[in-house]
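Q: What would this chain look like folded?
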Amino acid sequence: MDKNSASDYYGRALPCRRGSGFIGLDQALFPWLHRPQDPRRVVIIGAGGRDIHNFNIFFRDNPEYHVVAFIHVSQIPGLKSRRYPSELAGSLYPEGIPIYTEKDLEKIIRENKVDEAVISYSDLSYKELGNIISRVIASGSSVRILGPDETFIRSIRPVIAVTAVKTGSGKSSLSRKISEHLKRRGVRFVVVRHPMVYKDPGRMIVQYFEKTEDLDKEDLTIEERGV
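A: My prediction, written as structure tokens:
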């Protein structure tokens, strides 16, 4: 298409006289299609694990979205004063991202005019999922669940994934068994756990554990220790 033509709503070329002030039919009939779109306002609902992962992989440095807040389950201690720090949230969030408890879900959605609530739990029952969806829709927001293609981390090495349908199913015990088997075979490997925001996220950017004493040094919770 040359500079003396325009396109209609369906992409067909329309003649346009130079200097005549004519514009494309789509601009005349649908001017909002050419206005810069504001980022979609999002809250991410989770339990301090998969929700953080989804943000890091999909939303961080993504100008099409603005994450208003994380909504976490209330049993995580110290949430009232918790923020996801700017050094982890990226350049779009110089003040970090606030973290609220699930009881504030409706209030946060309404007060911040949230467009989408992204459900990012790893282990919800259908009943629990349905309850959250109902609360979100009743508050005026849409619901979204990110799929694997949007959240997988690409690896150049073989990966063994240990997953489960619910917390406490035995992932840590199975991971230790797999580790013992790999050691016996002389395989060099590393165990990677997704982030959990139980303490100050700014202090947890990278944590390396080689000895049992390292667990005490980092003041890990019982769940994080995999006891």
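The CA atoms of residues 107 and 139 lie 8 Å apart.
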